[in-house]
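Q: I'm writing up a methods section and want to include an example of the input and output format. Could you take the sequence below and give the corresponding predicted structure tokens, formatted cleanly so I can copy it straight into the document?
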Amino acid sequence: MFNSLVSNIIYLFSSFTLLDAIDILLLTVFIYYILRFLKGKQANRILTGIIIIFLVDLLSAILKLNALNWVLNFVITYSIFGLIVIFSDEIKAYLASIGSTFPFKKKETASAESIEAIVDATEELVRRRIGALILFEKKQPLEDYIERGKIIDAKITKELIVSLFYPNNPLHDGCIIIKENRIAAASVILPLPESVVEKRANYGTRHLAAISITRQTDCIAMVVSEETGIISIAKNGTLTRNYTLKALKELLNKELKKQ
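A: Here is the clean output for your methods example:
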């Protein structure tokens, strides 16, 4: 029996071609990107449910439970279209983020000097209890959102950031977008999430917008609450509160500077 097993293994590898290797590699890459998309998302739990339905469907086919098998096949067929609709924004954002990795050139969103100015501005905003929302573009372009606001295209300075969010400034509503070491636009109005889950978590409009935009793109969003002065960071659709200025500076240096 052992010799037969060894013979089968040797035969398998002897018939293994370069095309087979490429086939396996491409399949591995495909599975990797699918799992990376599902990681930490609600889709992960939905996928678990779909797998269970497939297993029950397979069992019903084996046991010839025709009625149950027919219903499950119907559910599976139309669930695929439903999932595409439900996760259309996430799918578009993920495909765009994959496309934005070519060519493999890393952009610097903010220099060390600019990050220092951003942190100093944040400190002033917190002290004055001025609400703010700042987006930092990464690999995925934010041109569609930039065009919705007022084009600034100015050097990043503490004074400019604070003045843009000052309540009497006509551009204080919305957010500012930082792109390639410049303040690209101000007064950008962002879409809010359709899900009521975040809305029930007592988040303000800025926080909801930060969650929504980071769910659709790979940007980082910083929020300063005008009620509490608390600094929050949204990334990949997840909001983390109570950032210190030191932690904020470390995060920005890690995420925005060219590696």
